[in-house]
Write a structure and sequence with these properties.
The chain is α/β, with parallel strands linked by helices. Helix content is about 25%, strand content about 25%. It has 12 helices and 18 strands. The chain has helices spanning about 40-50, 95-100, 110-115, 155-160, 165-175, 190-200, 215-220, 235-245, 260-265, 290-295, 310-325, 340-350; strands at about 1-10, 15-25, 30-40, 60, 65-70, 80-85, 115-120, 125, 135-140, 145, 180-185, 205-210, 225-230, 250-255, 270-275, 300-305, 335, 355-360. Strands 3, 5, 6, 9, 10, 17 and 18 form a 7-stranded mixed β-sheet that branches. Strands 13-12-11-14-15-16 form a 6-stranded parallel β-sheet, sandwiched between helices. A 5-stranded mixed β-sheet has the order 1-2-7-8-4, with no helix packed on it. The structure holds zinc ion (2 copies).
C-alpha cells in the first residue's frame, strides 16, 4: 500500500475532493506509475457530472503520462521507464484483440473486479475509466502503458493517451479515409481537432472544420483544415455542396455529443460516404436516419471508440510524427494546473473555454 493524493468524486456534479487514498501494490501483470501529467478529457467531466451513471466514490482521469515506480510479476517493463498511461486494457489473445480491436477486448482482468484504491475509512474507491489518474500515482495493467520515446514532455505525451488517438484513429483506423477525400468535422474540441490532424495525415483534399467557437476554428485551420465554418452564421450544408459540386462529403465525423450535430450529419454525407460517431452523447440521447437513403446511396454509419486504436502500434507512430513536425501536441494544451486546482481546470473544460487543461505534478 502507498498513500497518494487524489481528486475524488463523492457526489455527481459536486467539486472533486482532494483526499489521501491508499493505493494497492501492483498484482501480476500490473504496474504502478508515478504521474507527471494528466489531461482532462470531456469524458472525465461527463462522468463527474453523472451523465453516464456509475458508482461513487470514484477517481476519474484517464489521459496520463509518468514513470514506472513498481512492476508486478510477469511484467516486461523496467522501473524508471517513462510511459503514456491509457484506459485501453487488453489481453492480446481474445477474438477481438486478434482482429485489431483491442479497445473492445473481451477478457476479464483482476482490476475489473477489485479497485486498487481505498479511502481513509477503508471504503473502496472506484478505479474510474480503468485508470483513476486524477491522482499522484496509478496502478494499471501493463497493457495500458506505452513507453515514451525521446524527450517528449510528459504534458504533451499525456494527450496521446486519449484525445489524439481517438481523433486521429477515427480517421486512420475506424474510417480508413482515402487521400483526396472530402471530410467534414462537426465539433472542434479536444477530439475534433485531432480528427482534423488525422484528416491532414490521411491527405484528405478538403477538410471542413465546423464549430461555434472562432478560436477553435482558427486552431483547426492551423492544424490542417482547408475550410472552417462558424455555425453561428448558419448551417454548413451549402459550403459542402459548393466544395463537392453537390456530391456532398465522403466522411462526416461527429466529434461532439451535441444531438444537433448528430441530426445534421446525414444531410452532409454523399453516396458511398460514411458518418463516423466519435463524440459520446449523454446516456439516452438517440438519433435517427433514413434507411432508404442509407441503402440506396451505399452509406455507412460507424462508431469509433478510442479511434479503434492499437496503442502499442499507434502511440509510437504518433510520437514519431510529433518528432517529425507532422503532429501538433504542445499547442493543444490550453493551461496547466496543480492537482489542488483541478476543479477550476474541470470548469474550463465543462464550459468549453479550454481545449485540453493538464494537471501537472512536481
Ligand atoms: Zn478521454
Ligand atoms: Zn483481448
Amino acid at each position: 500500500m502507498t498513500s497518494i493524493r487524489a481528486a475524488v468524486c463523492r457526489s455527481f456534479g459536486a467539486p472533486l475532493a482532494i483526499e489521501t487514498l491508499e493505493l494497492a501494490s501492483p498484482g501480476p501483470g500490473e504496474v504502478r506509475v508515478g504521474l507527471r501529467a494528466v489531461a482532462i478529457c470531456h469524458s472525465d467531466v461527463s462522468y463527474a457530472d453523472g451523465e453516464w451513471g456509475g458508482d461513487l466514490p470514484a477517481v476519474f482521469g484517464h489521459e496520463a503520462a509518468g514513470e514506472i515506480l513498481e512492476v508486478g510479476d510477469g511484467v516486461g517493463f523496467e522501473v524508471g521507464t517513462r510511459v503514456v498511461v491509457t484506459l485501453v486494457r487488453s489481453c492480446g489473445e481474445c477474438h477481438r484483440c486478434q482482429c485489431g480491436a483491442e479497445v473492445a477486448c473481451s477478457a476479464e482482468f483482476a482490476l475489473d473486479g477489485t479497485s486498487p484504491l481505498v479511502d481513509a475509512d477503508g471504503t473502496a474507491v472506484g478505479h474510474g475509466m480503468r485508470t483513476a489518474a486524477f491522482a499522484e500515482q496509478v496502478v494499471v495493467h501493463a497493457s495500458q502503458i506505452v513507453p515514451i520515446d525521446g524527450d517528449l514532455p510528459a504534458d504533451s505525451a499525456s494527450l496521446l493517451a486519449c484525445g489524439v488517438i481517438t481523433g486521429v484513429g477515427a480517421v486512420v483506423n475506424t474510417a480508413g479515409v482515402e487521400p483526396g477525400s472530402t471530410v467534414v468535422i462537426l465539433g472542434c474540441g479536444g477530439v475534433g481537432l485531432n480528427v482534423v490532424q488525422g484528416a491532414a495525415i490521411a491527405k484528405a483534399a478538403s477538410i471542413v472544420a465546423v464549430d461555434l467557437n472562432p478560436d477553435k476554428l482558427t486552431l483547426a485551420s492551423r492544424l490542417g483544415a482547408t475550410h472552417s465554418h462558424d455555425l453561428a452564421t448558419g448551417p454548413v450544408d451549402e459550403l459542402v455542396a459548393d466544395l463537392t459540386d453537390g456530391a456532398m462529403a465522403d466522411y462526416v465525423f461527429v466529434a461532439t455529443g451535441a444531438p444537433a450535430a448528430l441530426a445534421s450529419a446525414g444531410a452532409l454525407v454523399g453516396t458511398m460516404g460514411a458518418v463516423v460517431i466519435v463524440g459520446m452523447p449523454a446516456t439516452g440521447v438517440t438519433g435517427s436516419f433514413d434507411p432508404a437513403t442509407l441503402a440506396g446511396s451505399n452509406q455507412r454509419i460507424l462508431g469509433s471508440k478510442m479511434g479503434t486504436s492499437v496503442i502499442a502500434r499507434d502511440i509510437p507512430a504518433l510520437m514519431q510524427r510529433y518528432h517529425e513536425g507532422e503532429l501538433e501536441l504542445d499547442g493543444l494544451i490550453s493551461r496547466r494546473f496543480p492537482l489542488d486546482r483541478i476543479n477550476e481546470a474541470m470548469d474550463e473544460v465543462r464550459s468549453g473555454t479550454a481545449l485540453r487543461n493538464v494537471i501537472v505534478f512536481d
